[in-house]
Amino acid sequence: MEGGRVEMDVIVDLQYGDCGKGKIAHFLCTTRKYTHVLRYNGGCNAGHTIFHKGKKFVTHHIPAGVFAGIPSVIGPGCVVDPEKFLEEITGLEEGGISAKTNVFVAKNVHVITAAHKAEDGKETKVGTTGQGNGPAYRDKFARTGVRAEHVLELQPFLVDLYDMWYSGKEVRVLAEGAQGFGLDIDWGDYPYVTSSHCTVGGAILNGIPHSAVKEVWGVAKMYETYVGKKDFQPKDEIFNKIGDVGEEFGATTGRRRQTNWMDMQLLEKAIRMNGVTHVVFNKVDVLRIAGAWAIIDEGKVVPFKGEEAMKSFITERLVKIGISAANIFFSENKEGI
User: Fold this and answer.
1) Residue at 90 is within a domain
2) Pure H helices in the chain
3) What torsion do the CA atoms of 107, 110, 101, 165 make, to the nearest 10 degrees?
4) Active site residue 263
5) Is residue 1 part of a domain?
6) Which of 14, 43, 100, 186 is most deeply buried (CB count within 10 A of its CB)?
């Protein structure tokens, strides 16, 4: 088999998930030419909210490439709930999206079972989504799990990723992640973390070498949100206002997200460790409506008189750690950047 060139751009969340990765994936898919879109970690504990041609879609397993008619692959860094996956396929088809012919599942993806969901539903310490991800990943590494290749309902969607990536044709992949750097199993605020790798490292575990990575798009919000058991939101009414304006409810569970100011140290750490080349800050308009501008720097709240002052501060800091000012985008709560 003669190998073709393989290139990959990666989308990573720089905070605690829910930063708008799906929106950025949708934007890149519709403005650039990719041969495949790869979901590289997580399971149906994630949720992309995407507005496509005037319709609102919420996906959990399926990558955003399906909306642009691009072959969309669930890689072995993920875990899949067959029942929910098929429900999602049906929902997309009913919404006019060709999912049956454009969605693929790597045959070595591990499967979430009913037992995994029942166990996870009893979890109370961390505040997981209860979708069975943690127990499924545990069984994967205990070598007692079930792979997609052994599940009859998934057979029509199965692919061998080695054959897909290295068929001899040129391949350009957009890899989209789930959750965020602050929830990464190794680099997040343990034990309040997810069960998978939310970094660029997680993307290259899906059969594509590090040398193929070209651009890394880091996605953040102009403030932070978190869903889980730890105390995250300070006792100030402004954070409830931000949550209300931003409609901060989980796409998977519907739980209200806790909010706080953006932490510059977490942001800079995530940018450096992921080799980020482009940064998008979403929901600028939420702070504009809330009428408050601030960040956390070295553990202290730094307020700003207005939007432009905060943008300038952030831009100057990111330029100092190597991000080009031309690659920093401030986006509102809508499609595109």
Assistant:
1) yes
2) 21-31, 82-94, 114-120, 133-141, 161-165, 200-204, 237-245, 264-274, 284-290, 307-320
3) -50
4) no
5) no
6) 43
**Catalytic site residue from 18, 81, 139, 263:** 18
Helix (H, G, I), strand (E, B) or coil at 159: strand
Residue 291 counted as domain residue:
yes
> In CATH, what number is assigned to the domain containing residue 22?
3.40.440.10
Q: Say if CB 133 and CB 45 are below 8 A apart.
A: yes
Please write the tens of the pLDDT for every residue from 153-205.
999 999 999 999 998 899 999 999 999 999 999 999 999 999 999 999 999 99
Express each pLDDT in 243-291 by its tens digit: 999 999 866 567 789 999 999 999 999 999 999 999 999 999 999 999 9
Active-site residue flag, 18: yes
DSSP state of 3: P
Q: Given 36, 48, 52, 116, which residue is catalytic?
A: 48
pLDDT at position 28: 95
Phi and psi dihedrals of 175, rounded to 5?
-100, 120
Boundaries of domain holding 285: 6-330
